[in-house]
Amino acid sequence: MPDHLPEVYTDFRKRFSEVARSQDALAAAVDAAGPLDERTTRLVKLGIAVGAQAEGAVRSNVRKALAAGATVEEVEQVVLLGMTTRGFPATVAAWQWLNEVVGERE
Prior knowledge:
Blueprint: H1 7-15, H2 17-32, H3 38-52, H4 55-67, H5 72-81, H6 83-86, H7 88-105
Helix pairs in contact: 1-2, 3-4, 3-5, 4-7, 5-7
């Protein structure tokens, strides 16, 4: 598994491997259930993660959106769009997490 995954996540997946496989299958089915391409799907999931102020999900979806072809500027815009819905503090926190992920890639 990638180095950036939290130990609690990898431990959970090891302990409940059948549940993790089922979750992975569900996630793949949900992603494939509509017309959105992977890049768009990742940007939407990033927006949801920003709204939930879920740090791990923000970081994960930044990585996945960039891997799917989104630009840093597109990812930044998704985070910025949270400003008028989720508020300034949540948006700044998500922007920090985004920048930390981008910094890891450089």
